[in-house]
Design a protein that fits this description.
Strand content: 5-15%
Largest sheet: 5 strands, parallel
Radius of gyration: 18 Å
Order of helices and strands: EHEHHEEHHEEHHHEH
Distance between the termini: 13 Å
Number of domains: 2
Number of helices: 9
CATH topology of the largest domain: Rossmann fold
Helix content: 40-55%
CATH superfamily of the largest domain: P-loop containing nucleotide triphosphate hydrolases
Length: 198
């Protein structure tokens, strides 16, 4: 029995990663969304709430993690951030392991990992797919989001690896500056190519 080939999907903010992940899912590729798992683990009744509250008193409430409160505690403090990551990362890895077990018969599995290169996620995947669009398209998309400011956008982009570097390190690039139909066609062509190479 061959094990599934793992696609690591990544891309900077506003590049259309969630849209592309949904297209893979619609095409029958199981998708593991690391961010969604973190939100569930830290949401109302989430498994990690007791451990996070113990480590960072006052950072959680009935709705789960109070993002602003936790952010203020760990932001800019490397040690505290490490402590938080030591709680979150193993739990997400456990969920990912279960997901792999559930989909062990699939030809392809997609891991949606926003900070694939910034973390060590790239070591756990077989193929890296980067979603990309020109900088002005990215900027326009992100600034259209509620509560987003130019400063916030520039701060986030500053923390992420530059798009050009991600594209250079990718096995495949999906251009999302086109229509949704054209993007979907790129996704479907890539799925066929990856299945053919198995």
């Amino acid at each position: 029995m061959t094990k599934p080939s793992i696609i690591g999907l990544t891309g900077s903010i506003g590049m259309g990663k969630s849209t592309v992940a949904a297209m893979f899912e619609e095409a029958g590729v199981p998708v593991f969304d690391a961010d969604a798992e973190v939100r569930a683990l830290q949401g109302p009744g989430g498994e990690l709430i007791p451990a996070i509250e113990e480590a960072f008193p006052g950072s959680t409430g009935p709705e789960g993690v109070i993002r602003d409160a936790l952010g203020k505690i760990v932001f800019g403090d490397k040690e505290k951030l490490k402590k938080l990551e030591a709680i979150v990362h193993p739990a997400v890895a456990l969920k990912r392991g279960k997901f792999l077990e559930e989909h062990k018969d699939a030809a392809l599995i997609l891991f949606d990992i926003p900070l694939l290169f910034e973390g060590s996620g790239h070591a756990a995947v077989d193929t890296i797919v980067v979603v990309s669009a020109p900088a002005e398209v990215q900027r326009e998309r992100v600034l259209a989001r509620p509560g987003m400011s130019v400063e916030k956008f520039e701060h986030i982009v500053g923390l992420q690896m530059p798009d050009a570097e991600k594209r250079a390190r990718a096995d495949h690039v999906i251009d999302t500056s086109t229509t949704l139909e054209e993007t979907r066609a790129q996704v479907e062509a890539l799925i066929l190519e990856l299945k053919a190479s198995l």
